[in-house]
Specification:
five-stranded mixed β-sheet, single chain, 202 residues, 14 strands, mainly beta, seven-stranded mixed β-sheet
């Protein structure tokens, strides 16, 4: 009886799957001087999620404060092996900017529930001081741009097939693909993570 009670108290929890909505492409700096061209951020949704429920929040890494918030546009779908929803913001065209780093960052936030899905940075890491990512440390994507980067290029996730951010790897500057398939990226079924032990009581 005691053994059965102990077994009954073993709690199995499904390991949370990484988000199927993620930042997929970024351009923030180039060689055009004071007015960088087509500074943009792209987001994809691979599991049928509505991009209309997500915001991009830009952060200044020098003091950890947010300086811009915009809804992710619902732009349409593309097929790169698998079909995904894709939307991007061209900050330059909208009269804004994406700061040039050293470091700076981006939070992808699900509006319903105010959940931070990703908090990424470039040219280093920092801790957010306010906004939805307050208190969180960023994750550096590991590649960057500079004032020598050619216009018309971007940093992109590549690889696959996959359906979550962890299935892909950030790559250095290549011809930009905003609103279309990234260079060398293929979408497909994700990994079904097995259940893991969440807690044992007693």
């Amino acid at each position: 009886m005691r053994l059965l009670s102990s077994l009954a108290a073993l709690v199995l929890l499904s390991q949370p799957l990484a988000a199927a909505v993620f930042i997929n492409e970024l351009h923030y700096d180039d060689s055009t001087g004071g007015g960088d061209v087509d500074e943009s951020i792209e987001v994809v949704a691979t599991g049928g999620e509505s991009l209309g429920d997500y915001d991009l929040v830009l952060y200044n890494g020098s003091n950890g404060t947010m300086y811009d918030t915009d809804p992710v546009p619902v732009s349409g779908s593309v097929t790169c092996g698998g079909t995904v929803s894709m939307g991007f913001i061209n900050y330059t065209a909208a009269g804004g900017q994406v700061q040039n780093g050293g470091p700076d960052g981006i939070a992808l936030v699900q509006r319903s529930g105010s959940t931070v899905i990703q908090f990424l940075s470039y040219e280093g890491v920092f801790t957010a001081a306010d906004g939805p990512a307050s208190g969180m440390m960023s994750t550096d994507i590991g590649v960057s741009e500079s004032n020598g980067t050619a216009p018309g290029t971007s940093l992109q996730l590549s690889g696959g097939p996959g359906s979550i951010a962890g299935d892909f790897t950030w790559q250095g500057s290549a011809a930009e693909t905003f609103g279309a398939c990234n260079n060398g990226q293929t979408f497909g079924p994700g990994v079904d993570n097995p259940p893991v032990v969440g807690s044992t009581v007693p």
